[in-house]
Amino acid sequence: MIKKSLFAVFILSVISGVILFVQWLGFEKSSQAFSEMELEQLIKVEHTASGFKIVQQLTNVPKDKDLSVVVPPQALNISCENKSDQCSFRGQLGVITPGKSTVSISYTLKDQGGAAALLLSDWFIKVKEANLSYTTIELTERKLREGTWYSNADEVKNQKGKLVDFYLFERKGEAVDLYWQKEPLSRMTFNKKITVYAPKETVINSEVFSEVKGVADLDPPLVIMTKAHPSYSSATLVLVQDENQLGLLSDQFLIQYIHRAYQFTEGQKWFSQLIQAYMKNRPVGSPKAQEMYTHLQTKLSKDQHEKWKEKILHVKERVLTAEEMDQMLSSVVKLDTHFFTENKNENQLFKPLTLYDTRPVYIEEGRSEVQMVHRNGMILFPLQETLEELGFSVKAVSNERTLLIKKEYDTYRFFLDQNRFILNEDDYGIYNNALQTIDGEVYIDKNWLQKIFLTSVSEQSDRISINMLDYK
To answer: Which among 212, 213, 242 has a CA at the least distance from the CA of 226?
Structure first.
């Protein structure tokens, strides 16, 4: 009886698991259908004395699949135009189950503009699961007949009629902010990509956007210089008051471009400041970002710096990690480094560039785990590990700021804070940085390793050899 009960429980568990799996699979397919679907939209806007009446039509919509949307915060009288669609709106969130491949949603917005200018932002419905491949905006103006509407979309038509004005805007992707102004504006183009509208007779320095001139795939917003409306900034529209504010936009455009083109792991997004620095050819950003940029400039040769810059500026469309940046830099300098991994936390102390030689080290003809290091133009070896393999004993004394080193009849006492050492009873000075501490370990310069401990260090293309000299 117990076996039958256990078997029944097992069968029910299997059936439940299958049902859950099928439901999950259905959900995944539904989400995938929307995420892979390229929707197009036609937005009809009619502006009258009572406000804006808007009908947003989505096409290529999968039928009978719930579509989640976010409506504008000021939207009123929201409803679906098609009787075959099932619509539910609560606050700014809405769920639509399409009955056909086309969905039409109507709503109204109050007119909150002034007599001189009007900004229409956050005015259209956004679809959460799908990508918008193309947007067409038909704007019929019945109220504001004297001025002009502007947008970051292509203006296909601007027709002034007796009773109404008609505008037709088209663009790839999502809809954009719209801006109307009564005072006429003149159009100017910079770097063949940046469009600026400004009052007539305005003269703008031709080099105002020189720092972004070399960015091939820059996608800047429309820029309008005006005093008719307060300053404003979004991904598609920027309003500035004067040329001083205009001059600050290059940085904003670069940052927007970098955030779009480059991806960094969580906690390492501040590395985007380095990308910006290489685009501007000068240190920018946080103190640590500036220090890293300046440090690499001084430690790499001119040829290495150009190759590194070319590599880092051409890594796009994928997540970039500190480890990958280390690998790219290593391929340029032909030595291993953990520079970006060691500095990936913006709030921790800066660590200088350390380069690790990949050639194997042989000590007294035996293969060693010792690794030669290049730092600040010096070649260094880990002091304790190297000397112990050469037959010395190494011991830290006096709070580990003094090293006691012995071999046979010779005793060395190194004072790490004083740039000197005592050999037997004689006191000797050493150069500054002959001993360096890297990640808590003391390293010694190659030349001083040979002079003080009477060793020979020879470098070949495939190995490094360290041997004691026969001085007896």
So the answer is: 242
